[in-house]
Recover the amino acids of this structure.
């Protein structure tokens, strides 16, 4: 016979399971990864994640029902955002646990990011090189993400524009490229492209999400 306490415990764990259910879809995790860079409209999220509008909206509604994202209407446009920094931290921790516990995550990561042919540096090393005036910090995310928040002093050249804008980057300094996070391919591609043009370039081992969650200073809309 089920007691009142057992019934209450079952109801509690069922509520907690709502978060797990909401996260149990690869495309929803991709949407969280994008929203960790800043608020986005449904249309922007759908285009970036290569989803139909209806499908993207359904995934976002599932995340919203679980309290992981918020939705704000601006005229005819609905803009989504993470519900808080705790959600960004949850997404980061999920990635770390998956990488540590699932043998398939490592090979899948390497398959996506490409060969291990680019040099990476830590956050501390980036700060040291910038303080010494030896490096230019290059943000290769889309311009809208840079505007939402970026490493102070970074210059913005989206990865798909980099080949045509190399002349804008000082030629006498090392370049440290960064993008969304540790699972973002843009910085890898940027370093390969820069190296192919004879430029000295490395990448930040992590990205803007990890930078922000570590309590480092942020410029752009996020700073306000």
């Amino acid at each position: 016979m089920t007691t009142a306490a057992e019934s209450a415990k079952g109801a509690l764990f069922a509520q907690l399971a709502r978060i797990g259910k909401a996260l149990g879809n690869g495309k929803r995790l991709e949407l969280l990864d994008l929203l960790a860079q800043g608020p986005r409209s449904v249309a922007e999220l759908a285009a970036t994640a290569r989803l139909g509008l209806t499908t993207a909206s359904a995934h976002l509604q599932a995340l919203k029902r679980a309290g992981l994202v918020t939705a704000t209407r601006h005229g005819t446009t609905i803009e989504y955002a993470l519900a808080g920094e705790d959600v960004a931290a949850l997404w980061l921790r999920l990635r770390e646990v998956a990488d540590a516990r699932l043998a398939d995550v490592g090979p899948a990561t390497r398959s996506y990011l490409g060969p291990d042919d680019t040099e990476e540096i830590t956050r501390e090393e980036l700060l040291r090189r910038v303080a010494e005036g030896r490096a230019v910090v290059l943000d290769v995310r889309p311009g809208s993400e840079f505007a939402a928040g970026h490493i102070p002093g970074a210059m913005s050249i989206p990865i798909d524009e980099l080949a045509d804008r190399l002349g804008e980057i000082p030629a006498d300094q090392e370049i440290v490229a960064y993008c969304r996070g540790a699972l973002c391919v843009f910085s890898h591609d940027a370093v390969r492209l820069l190296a192919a043009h004879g430029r000295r370039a490395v990448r930040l081992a992590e990205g803007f999400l990890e930078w922000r969650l570590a309590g480092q200073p942020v410029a752009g809309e996020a700073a306000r």
In short: The two ends are 55 Å apart (CA to CA). The mean pLDDT is 94. Residues 4-89 form a domain with the Arc Repressor Mutant, subunit A fold (CATH 1.10.10.10).
